[in-house]
Fold these 2 entries.
Entry 1:
Amino acid sequence: MISPRNLVALALLAGVFIMEGFDIAAMGIAVPRLEAALGLEAASFGWVLTGILVGIGVGGATLAPLGDRFGRRALIVAGCLATGLFTLATSTATTTTGFLAWRFLTGFALGACLPNVSALSSEIAPAKLRATVMAVVSSGIPLGLFMAGVTAPAIIEAWQWQGLFYVCGGFAVVLAAILLFVLEGGPPKGSKPVEAKADDSPKLPQLTLFKTPWLLPFGVFAVILGLNALNLYLLNSWLPTVLPQAGLTLDVAAQVTGVANLAGLAIGIGASFLVDNWKKGPALMLLFGSMALSFITIWLTAPDQTRWTMLLMVGVGGANAGGMVLPGLAAHLFPARLLSSAVGMGVLVARIGAFAGPPLGAAMLAANVPPQVFLGVAAIPATACVLMALLVGRALLVRPREEAKEQAAEAAVA
């Protein structure tokens, strides 16, 4: 059972993901308003929208591992506080260079924080509920995206575009203060040292993922994660800019984006249930196949607010759901001694896909690609995910086979 204190801790950790989702959406919602406010064209923001992703990758690779040494609490609190301060500073930017600098620093702080949030939520959760708890905590991202979309019109009316960063940055600072008192301090507790002695793991266990037999399951996991990340950041970065070109107002476009992201909560929970209790490959094919069909339908139809909203709930919601479901899939693909490394390295590889999303959208905007085609392009990565899901069945065979070999070896020694 999870203690009341740990339930509060998990809720607050989910709040960190809510903050991340709101932050991602805030920049995308602000972009189409900056031409009138600052004279900055939307198409010039491709690298600004990528800046936060680069920062997350750098922060995750350089600072996040310090949580293993100094404790997850220190990295989470410091990262959340720094994220809030850099987000507040983003409201002072007046040039694309200024936005790029603050977004990179925001991402750098998030990169130090988020991996430790995921790791701590896994450590708090009961062993049998670890994947489910991780999925529920990470569901804060689509919730944050939804909250940004539906509250944006009121926030902007009160404080202009800068208000988006006031609200998100202020929330992060307050959340950091609360986390300081709720989370337990000190180095992380757990069985890592015992596991290391028991299986004589290498000093860099993540390198094992790039060798036989783990290369296949890791490759399948990382490629699907990367393709889905491309869609996630392409859509959430540019949807508030693209939808007005299809006839929606800026406020309605922000709200449609929020509703579409909220659908990811229901889709993610449903898909996670299927992955845990049904055939995992077909469950993923159903998820990504539905996404692909929704974007193809948009490609082939004239703009219509009601129809497109329903289709985007499936497509954009599915991309958010993929981010929730895939870490749970990793729990089935890899043994405990490789799970943290697999998720960490998978997220790092996924940044390649995430980096590509915003510049791809900027290039299509600069080429005056129609909204139907812009959104239809998202069907390509979704279809590629369906094809990769065909390999999930083979990838799932690796773990039981290797565990059987280890058990046989232990029996022979005994």
Entry 2:
Amino acid sequence: MTLLTKSHVLTRVKFPSRAQIDKTVRSNGLMLIGILIAAFGYAVFQIPHQVSAGGIGTISLIVNNYVPQLSIGMAFWLLNIPMIILGFFTLGRWAFATRTLIASTLFSIATDTFGLWLPDLVGYWPLTDNMILNVVYAGLLGGVGSGLIYKSGASTGGTGVLALIVQGRTGLPLSVASLLNDGVIIFSAGLVFGWEAALYSFLILVTYGYASDFAMEGPSSTRTATIVTNNPERVANALMAKLNKGVSYWEITGGYTGQKHFMVTTTMLRSQVDAVQRTIAEVDQDAFVTIGMSQKALGQGFRPIAR
């Protein structure tokens, strides 16, 4: 028989590292901030005017219209249960489902709380009757809030779960996936609240999608240049001297002429684009150049790759 001493038991207990604790705190903090921003935008700029960016938020408005005893926050929470079950089987099982249940619960509570207390706090309600302002701020706040929630590894559920599934399976941007999923729901809302409200909702949905993409991925600050040239070493050396960044090149064959050329490629900051163009013009006037937008650059010469 083997006896376990206190020292043996202690050696088997694994405590989270400082890095793991910091990561958890940042993730949960990001989720909470996103929930508060999204709930504020929903309660202030969408609910009072019966417009929404589709999804469970719009369905909750429709349900509340016919069953006013059921608060919009509670309707949102109840309608989310099937989506959370779907996310459990497709987007990460317990890790995703648990965080989504927490996020949707907090979002529902925050929505009802804002709707209950803000009218008395502000003194007049709604905050503005200007529908353009409502559309812009509803889309921006809802999109930024949801983007931060997604970035934290959670979701408020709803058709956002479907959008994440479509994005993961097809590679479509989140804005396009949301538009496909929520368009039919907004059309249905038009039958209940009128077509003007539906048209405003479509504008919110478009703004919401772009804002969520921006919140998740950040602004694009890098560009990638592709240069077709017959002087690869001269172009590469000039670019390395100007940018102080790596350059790659390889031999290619022109599809139309069948002639041999070289393709040079490098990634730069947006502020360096003009310098790259001038450098190429100085060393090879016959080069063919394309410069495209890169969403993010990580690694040597740029931001380190986060673990």
